[in-house]
């Protein structure tokens, strides 16, 4: 495996680990959130499975997919946070 492939693989592994941690956080928050958030989560989660599968191959396309998935889940968590705070008021 070339050095650039090793670096790409290491970066992908780090991104996927972050994605998995945020995914667990999202599951907990969805459990506490309303039906709208649960519906959005049910649409997002299969995409995250695809990202993790793609990340098993150390390619630029996998890196792009992992980054896109990471950004999607961050946006989702941010929107859940806003929803949860509104409900508490």
Describe what this molecule looks like in 3D.
The structure is a single chain. By secondary structure, this protein is an all-alpha fold. It has helices at 3-32, 35-54, 60-88. Helix content is 89%, strand content 0%. Helix 1 (3-32) packs antiparallel against helix 2 (35-54). The mean pLDDT is 84.
Main attributes?
single chain; 89 residues; mainly alpha; Single alpha-helices involved in coiled-coils or other helix-helix interfaces; 3 helices; 0% strand
Multimeric organization = single chain
Strand content range: under 5%
Number of strands: 0
Distance between the termini: 54 Å
Pattern of helices and strands = HHH
* Domain tally: 1
Largest sheet: none
Poorly predicted regions are none
Radius of gyration: 15 Å
